[in-house]
């Protein structure tokens, strides 16, 4: 996470990941390719659908989070390299839990994403690695929570010198 080793990551740390703006055209284009539900594709069908309005696929909202997460990590790593430091390599995620789409994301919405460290632990099975736990959220321009999940990611421990 943002180029840091397990020992450098503090519980409670909030990482602001940035924003993603959802346009009508992008919502429809994403839905056509990945989630062709009528309420993601057509205004009239959406009005008659379960949400009552054209809305982004939940996976589009999640992809916006991932786009911001990757960009934030890449920028943090580039800054570290510019300072002469080698960032820790980010490890794989063993999964996520409690994925929630709480409110529809509609054309014109801008979602601000953040990740909060909720815990970490060393791994006995992989002594050079630890696991970082996060609460990940997306909030719309009205301050409403629209998206959240609990994540975890393998994070390297600082190498012994």
Short summary:
This protein has 161 residues and is of the alpha+beta class.
Descriptive report:
This protein starts with 13 loop residues before the first strand and ends in a 5-residue tail after the last strand. It has one domain (6-156): Hotdog Thioesterase (Thiol Ester Dehydrase, Chain A). By secondary structure, the protein is an alpha+beta fold. Strands 1-3-4-5-2 form a 5-stranded antiparallel sheet, covered by helices on one side. The longest helix has 25 residues, at 58-82. It is elongated, with a radius of gyration of 18 Å. The mean pLDDT is 95. The protein has 4 helices and 5 strands. Helix content is 29%, strand content 32%. The chain has helices spanning 24-34, 38-41, 43-48, 58-82; strands spanning 14-21, 95-101, 110-122, 129-139, 145-156.
What is the β-strand count?
5
Strand order, main sheet: write it out.
1-3-4-5-2
Low-pLDDT sequence parts: none
Largest sheet: 5 strands, antiparallel
* Broad structural category: alpha+beta
Which second-level CATH architecture applies?
Roll
How large is the share of residues in beta strands? Answer: 25-35%
Shape: elongated
Measured distance between first and last alpha carbons: 22 Å
Percent of residues in helices comes to: 25-40%
How much is the radius of gyration in Å? 18 Å
CATH topology, by name, is: Thiol Ester Dehydrase, Chain A
- Can you give the mean pLDDT? 95
| Total discrete domains | 1
CATH superfamily (homologous) name: Hotdog Thioesterase
Give the ordered list of helices and strands: EHHHHEEEE
DSSP helical segment count: 4
**CATH class value:** Alpha Beta
């Amino acid at each position: 996470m943002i180029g840091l080793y397990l020992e450098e990551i503090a519980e409670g740390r909030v990482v602001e990941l940035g924003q993603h703006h959802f346009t009508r055209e992008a919502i429809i284009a994403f839905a056509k390719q990945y989630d062709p539900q009528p309420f993601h594709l057509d205004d009239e069908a959406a009005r008659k659908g379960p949400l009552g309005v054209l809305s982004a696929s939940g996976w589009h909202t999640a992809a916006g989070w991932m786009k911001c997460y990757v960009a934030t990590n890449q920028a943090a790593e580039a800054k570290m390299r510019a300072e002469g430091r080698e960032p820790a390599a980010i490890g794989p995620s063993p999964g996520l839990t409690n994925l929630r789409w709480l409110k529809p994301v509609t054309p014109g919405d801008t979602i601000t994403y953040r990740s909060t460290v909720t815990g970490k632990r060393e791994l006995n099975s992989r002594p050079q690695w630890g696991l970082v736990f996060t609460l990940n959220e997306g909030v719309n321009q009205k301050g409403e929570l629209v998206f959240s999940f609990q994540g975890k990611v393998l994070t390297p421990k600082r190498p012994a010198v």
